[in-house]
């Protein structure tokens, strides 16, 4: 597991599947419903199974995703951009969904990544309890670490259900975060090029 995930302490080992299902029953009762009624009998199992999928990023090592790169680039050294990568995450404050798109670019330094790996690294970090700011930085930092490009640019645009469904209840508002490293950070013209390529439809 990569260093961005804090391991459970020895006295806080991961609960069993049965304990997780019992926790769901407790929440159902706290919400005011009866987990023994017919429609909710299988809900704890379904929720535990869904959580295993929704938070599957904790069981994936970023090195397994980004550890292999390719050196045959045919002299190409300009921006590589994968845009409109859809993702689903969960806010670490309320455990409510975050739905958005990520745009990830890098400037090669003799090596490139398989394009699907960029989407996979977005998915890896999205499938954890997150803040959007942290997720944006993690994507960039992991690509810097394993590819060592001349620069990385990441933009994440997402709607947070903790704003839409509760609290201020402003549906449709989105949050935009960016991270720039290397030449993207040092050269405003490269940032503009990235933004233009992301927005060009």
From TrEMBL:
UniProt-listed PROSITE patterns: GTP_CYCLOHYDROL_1_1
Keywords: GTP-binding, Hydrolase, Metal-binding, Nucleotide-binding, One-carbon metabolism, Zinc
Reaction catalyzed: GTP + H2O = 7,8-dihydroneopterin 3'-triphosphate + formate + H(+)
GO CC list: cytoplasm
Pfam families (UniProt xref): GTP_cyclohydroI
Binding site for Zn(2+): 91, 94, 162
Species annotation: Allorhizobium taibaishanense
InterPro entries to which the protein is assigned, alphabetical: GTP-CH-I_C/QueF, GTP-CH-I_N, GTP_CycHdrlase_I, GTP_CycHdrlase_I_CS, GTP_CycHdrlase_I_dom
Name used for this protein in its record: GTP cyclohydrolase 1
Protein family per UniProt: Belongs to the GTP cyclohydrolase I family.
Entry EC number(s): 3.5.4.16
């Amino acid at each position: 597991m990569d260093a961005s995930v804090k391991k459970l302490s020895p006295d806080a080992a991961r609960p069993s599947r049965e304990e997780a299902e019992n926790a769901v029953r407790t929440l159902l009762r706290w919400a005011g419903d009866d987990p023994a009624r017919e429609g909710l009998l299988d809900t704890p199992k379904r929720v535990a199974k869904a959580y295993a999928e929704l938070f599957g990023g904790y069981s994936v090592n970023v090195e397994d995703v980004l550890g292999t790169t390719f050196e045959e680039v045919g002299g190409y050294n300009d921006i590589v951009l994968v845009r409109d990568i859809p993702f689903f995450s969960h806010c670490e404050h309320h455990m409510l969904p975050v739905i958005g798109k990520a745009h990830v670019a890098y400037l090669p330094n003799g090596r490139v990544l398989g394009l699907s790996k960029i989407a996979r690294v977005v998915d890896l970090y999205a499938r954890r309890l997150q803040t959007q700011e942290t997720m944006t930085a993690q994507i960039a930092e992991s690509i810097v670490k394993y590819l060592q490009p001349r620069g990385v640019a990441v933009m994440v645009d997402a709607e947070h259900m903790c704003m839409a469904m509760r609290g201020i209840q402003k549906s449709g508002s989105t949050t935009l975060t960016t991270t720039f490293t290397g030449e993207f950070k040092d050269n405003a013209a490269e940032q503009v090029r990235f933004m233009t390529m992301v927005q060009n439809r």
